[in-house]
Amino acid sequence: MAISDYIGRFAPSPSGELHFGSLIAALGSYLQARALEGKWLVRIEDIDPPREVPGAAQTILRQLEHYGLHWDGEVLWQSQRHEAYRERLAWLREQGLSYYCTCTRARIQSVGGIYDGHCRELHLGPQNAALRLHQTHPVLNFHDGLRGNIVTNESLAREDFIIHRRDGLFAYNLAVVVDDHYQGVTEIVRGADLIEPTVRQISLYRHFGWAEPDYIHLPLALNQEGAKLSKQNHAPALSTGDPRPEIIRALQFLNQSIVNEWQDCSLESLLANAVANWSLPAVKDSQTLPGEL
Ligand code: GLU
Ligand code: ZN
Fold it and tell me: Domain 3-95+177-286 belongs to what architecture?
């Protein structure tokens, strides 16, 4: 159905059901993709079994369907992608762009919390070690489609970050880049909580020599205490009843103009109207969108 080259995506982790905060990211990425007549993909980021809630992935997919957010093609599951992550890790090893590190969290804290490259020249083996990227393409700023130029913390940008964890799990930054590239994603629309890792992700694209996607970080919904809605602070799951009031609330949060008659239309026409009237500048006007971390 896509008639443009745009490919967007929503990439939830199955650590719990979707809540209002995740609906903002899902709906924002959906509307942007549909308004640009592109594809909208869904990827389940199940690379961290200890943090997974049994059944959450299926629940998330059911919730998306219930809210009328139908994706294109097959869902991609990160648990099926280990071969691709291993292949990229092997490539980085061959290029001399990674090394094993046995430093403890306590040691890194004692040098100020940013990893100092301590193990870079030690030629350690894989036993009880994490694998770190030897950072040769630090990214100090990037363009965000809503926020403009985002300048990031320089020492964070220069850090040799972990790409394969000591416990054997693949790092989020590695998996997300390998998969966004594999799926041909052209623009990433997600919550502002992911501004910070973006420079690391862009640096991976540059190490791999891959074309970088565009980025848009949407404002975060906060609870009454001013904290971000999250699974950790028990944000309530999305309603299983009529999805339209929550969609309207999400559109209002994104500062989209809602025509009163939409309140009474079907879910399908509500979403079709939201696509037809989608305005990214309106999102920008509604919020203070600090670029700093
Ligand atoms: N899986 C990540 C999360 O749920 C989001 C990944 C992304 O959008 O890049 O927080
Ligand atoms: Zn180390």
Answer: 3-Layer(aba) Sandwich (3.40)
